[in-house]
Amino acid sequence: MPAPLEAIVIHALLSIKALRPFIVASDGVKLPSMAEKQNQEVKHLIKIEHKIDEIKNRTGSFLRAFVGGVLYGVGWILGGIIAIVALSWILSLMGVIPGLADIAQYLYNILQTWHGR
Per the CB 3.0–4.6 Å rule, which of 28, 64, 92, 108 could disulfide with 100? Predict the structure, then answer.
């Protein structure tokens, strides 16, 4: 008598979907069970959370981002000024911009008198 009872219990345990990793469809294709799908989704969400934490760690605080942005802008402005001055100087040497040499000499003289005080 115990043999048929054990067979019924084993059959009942095997029919529970959570215990089987796959569900067999009517056409014989193995499909992941609901618990396996949820497990995959949870793992994916954990990966996303870790990536968000990495992004937060790389960006730092708002103050750091603000100061970095200000310094970046100042660098662009100074670089642009230096490029314009260098281009103007080269063009004045070539004679493309007449009178720039006179202005440069005038500014140089003013700086020399101011520095001499």
Answer: 92
